[in-house]
Predict the 3D structure of the following.
Amino acid sequence: MSNQEPDGRSTYRRRKRSQMHAEAEAEVFQDAEIADHPMVVVGRPELVVNEADLVELAQAIRKTGSFAYDTEFIGEETFLPRICLVQVACAGRLALVDPLEVSDLGPIFELVADPEIETLVHDGAQDLEPVRRLLGKEPQGIVDTQVCAGFLDMPWPSSLAKAVERFAAHALSKGHTFTDWDARPLTDRQVRYAADDVRFLPLVWSRMQAMLEANGRLGWALQECEESRRRHLGGFDPEKQMRKISRGSRLKAKSATVLREIVKLRHELAEEQNLPHRVTMSDESVAEVARIQPQDVEGLQRCRHLGRRNTSEFAERIIAAVKRGIDGPPQPFENLQTRDENAEERMRIDAIWSALSLRCLADGIAPNLLTSRANLAQWYINRCDGKSTESLFLPDSWRWEAAGRWLESFLDGKSTLDLRWDDGRLHRADDVEPG
């Protein structure tokens, strides 16, 4: 195990990771006993360290048609997160696949990309990315239990521990959330923690599925799982990074063009050096270069946060990127920010958000899974300004069925919200037309 980045620089995050690893190992606690259940594999998981065993495991999973999938990775030291462990669970099997011993994870990734196989994840966006990148295929048949929990009277997002506690009646151990996953041999606590990330998911999903079918929300939940997967399609998006760096500020077209060129250059340098974006050039540094717009080495030296390597080894490339932005055609940047709400609008938006949230809570749906107050505010202000007459939700979406139709009718004064409190939670009566 190395405590150095590829270019020899020690990392604070690696030291912090190792520190938290040591603290987790030193902590005194007793893992909760695993109750016997046919959908939960009790005991220590298999450790797969060769390709033949991996192929056999994948074949066994394929026969079951459904499996839980997770990965442990280290993402703060390299351009792409480094996978250090793959966890899988299905009927009768619980296994940890060691990528440090098995270089080709294709047999598992092929399962994730197979539409005939149901893949269970919890907050699985980062775990699915290697399948796209290494296989060139899109993950299919994905069921994200974090998404599904949002339709079952749980907050969005809910942790795996909360979902397992609610639907499998088991208290997961804390500890190795941020740990040295590339250390070998893995400790007993690391093995238990990693195995528990998938051990209970088949049972959790079985019970979630039954409840979703009973309340008529299964289709909505699966639709949102699909939409969630699609939101993470695509590769490097400079616009997304620009929004983060600008922090919602309004940028003139020329300033945005320079910022875009610096963001694109940072991506190139990060990939070349196999370093994360933030290590190559911090967001603060990118914003500073875009603001100062240095056109020579002397000007570059005024960027105090840029770092010695960038002001020497990559100086010419940074200056060239600034020049491209200045000399190129202006490219406006849409930062998705609306004008500020005035006091009256803020009160009205708060009122609409409260009504929408209460209706969701009464239906057992997490309000911020449906939308956010920021999205609602943007939609309302655009509507008030005459910039849009569209509904907040697409008519063919689960959001329209769950709340969109009612919201339009409510704002037109044609529907009301009738609530009652019973058994410790909100309940909703059928919408009532005002007399």
The longest strand covers residues 66-74. Residues 75 and 81 are 4 Å apart (CA to CA). The longest helix spans residues 253-273. Residues 343-428 form one domain.
